[in-house]
Each structure stands twice: as structure tokens, then as C-alpha cells.
Design brief:
Elements (H helix, E strand, L loop, with lengths): L7 E4 L6 E4 L2 E5 L18 E9 L3 E2 L3 E3 L3 E8 L2 E5 L6 E2 L3 E6 L4 E7 L5 E8 L9 E6 L5 E5 L11 E7 L5 E5 L4 E6 L4 E4 L6 E4 L4 E4 L2 E6 L4 E8 L1
Antiparallel strand pairs: 1-20, 2-3, 3-4, 4-12, 5-11, 6-11, 7-10, 7-12, 8-9, 8-11, 10-13, 14-15, 15-22, 16-21, 17-20, 17-22, 18-19, 18-21
Length: about 240
């Protein structure tokens, strides 16, 4: 008989490939995007990349191309600036997200045009349908409860995935359920939290920036302070 409880496997930030430059600090949870480990790592289903990046003030990546990848950028702190052949000058603030469906190809540069650091996540997904003109979408959330960031008509990922922003109140459990045949990835964005599945196994503690893979079943999240997390459900 299958257990009703999710399996939880932690991925501490300290074990991830890290890129440390004067203008950028970046941790790669799956396939590494920059630095000595670029190209190394493994995808999780259609999720190719989850990069946790902090830009120094007035810094950005050089202009570069993308083709046939779904690019979801999520801002945690600060402001992300987008410079490209489309949506040029778009700015994304805290709890905001931009989705670029690069399709037949586009060029852009992203970074921080402000006087304060910017921390953001960038997720790359492998699309299941291809071709067409690039498309751009955006959304922001309020930071209350469980709010969908991508995977619906407003932010239409061209793959079987959904991405949520989770907001936790101190001491109040938040339920997570991974359906049979699915899996999920959890990232602690702003504070430590505990993931409890099988009661006898105890809680898995995630520090800020730590991730965890969850298999099918039920789990709950708790935090001692107000905290935010990213939750990704995948096949």
C-alpha cells in the first residue's frame, strides 16, 4: 500500500553550484547556467533551471538570445529590469513575475538598474509545443496564502507545470498535497521553515535558499516567523 505521506528530500543551498562575482551571486538548483559548473546538473521533469540570483546595484547580464524555452522570472526583493527586442524597459518588483515564451527566438538582457540589490529567481521550462512569435506575460501577487504565479491563462506555460507563491503566517501550518504521479519542488525564499510529512520521521528544516523535492502524498509547512516559499508542481 502506498504511504499517504509525501517523501521529502532536502537540497541545501550550501550543496548547490555557486557563482560569486563582484556584481552577481547565484545558486543553481538544477542545470547550472553560469560559472565553472555551467551545463552540469539534472532537470526535474520539464524544469531545466532554477537560478537564485542576487544582482548588485546597476548591474546586468549582457544581451543574449533564447529560443524554445519558457523563462519565468520571479522577484523576491528589489526591482528587475528587462531590456530586449520586446517588452523593453519593463520593470518587475517584489512578488512580481514575468514569463517569456521565447519560441522562435528573442534577445534580451536582465539586471538591476537601481541603487539597491535585487534578488530574483529564474526558472527555465522545456516546452511541449514549439514555434511561433515570442510572447510576454506578467503578474504580481499580494503575498497572502497560496497564489498561482504561472501555469494558467494569465501566465500560460507551454508545459505541464504550475508555480505558486506561498505565504506562511507564524505557527500556522500550510498543507501541501502532491497528487499521485506528480512531484514538487519547494524553495524557502525569505526565512527558515519546516516540512513535515510522515509524523514519525520528524520535520525537514529548510533554511533560507534551501530547496526540497517532494514525492506524492501529503505534507505541511510551518514557520516561526512570516515566511515565503516557491512551490512548483511537475509530472
Amino acid at each position: 500500500m502506498n504511504s499517504p505521506y509525501a517523501t521529502v528530500t532536502a537540497h541545501p543551498r550550501a550543496t548547490l553550484p555557486e557563482t560569486a562575482l563582484p556584481w552577481l551571486r547565484l545558486y543553481d538548483h538544477f542545470i547550472a547556467t553560469v560559472g565553472p559548473a555551467a551545463g552540469q546538473g539534472r532537470a526535474l521533469g520539464p524544469l531545466l533551471v532554477l537560478a537564485d540570483a542576487t544582482f548588485a546595484p546597476h548591474s546586468r547580464f549582457p544581451r543574449h538570445p533564447h529560443r524554445e524555452v519558457e523563462i519565468l522570472s520571479v522577484v523576491i526583493d528589489g526591482t528587475l529590469s528587462h531590456h530586449g527586442d520586446q517588452a523593453n524597459g519593463q520593470r518587475v518588483g517584489p512578488r512580481g513575475a514575468q514569463l517569456i515564451s521565447s519560441r522562435d527566438g528573442m534577445f534580451h538582457a536582465e539586471g538591476n538598474d537601481t541603487d539597491a540589490p535585487t534578488r530574483m529567481l529564474q526558472l527555465w521550462f522545456e516546452p511541449t509545443t514549439r514555434g511561433g512569435a515570442p510572447a510576454y506575460f506578467s503578474r504580481s501577487v499580494e503575498g497572502r496564502g497560496r497564489e498561482l504565479l504561472a501555469g494558467d491563462a494569465v501566465m500560460p506555460l507551454r508545459c505541464d507545470a504550475k508555480v505558486w507563491w506561498l505565504s506562511l503566517e507564524p505557527g500556522a501550518p500550510a498543507a501541501l498535497t502532491v497528487p499521485t504521479g506528480r512531484r514538487g519542488y519547494l524553495l524557502a525564499l525569505t526565512a527558515s521553515m519546516r516540512v513535515t510529512a510522515a509524523p514519525a520521521a520528524g520535520a525537514v528544516v529548510l533554511g533560507l535558499g534551501d530547496g526540497a523535492t517532494l514525492g506524492p502524498g501529503a505534507a505541511s509547512l510551518t514557520a516561526d516567523t512570516a515566511a515565503s516559499a516557491l512551490w512548483i508542481e511537475l509530472p
